[in-house]
Design brief:
about 70 residues, alpha+beta
């Protein structure tokens, strides 16, 4: 029973480690405005700007491909 608690803690740590996301770890998005159905975002780290319909951007603006 005593070994069960450390095993659960290790399993939780490993689960959170493998499920983490690094897609936006470099950017800190802040909502700067709103236009109709779009939200305007600006990164405080790299200065990138993005527009989304829901939620914050999923990728770092500095590394996202420019179209």
């Amino acid at each position: 029973m005593i070994l069960l608690i450390p095993l659960i803690l290790i399993a939780l740590y490993l689960g959170m480690y493998f499920m983490r996301t690094e897609r936006t770890s470099d950017c800190r998005w802040r909502q700067t405005g709103r236009e109709q159905d779009e939200r305007l975002w600006r990164c405080q780290v790299c200065g990138a700007e993005a527009r989304t319909e829901k939620g914050e951007p999923k990728h770092c603006g500095a590394t996202a491909p420019k179209l």
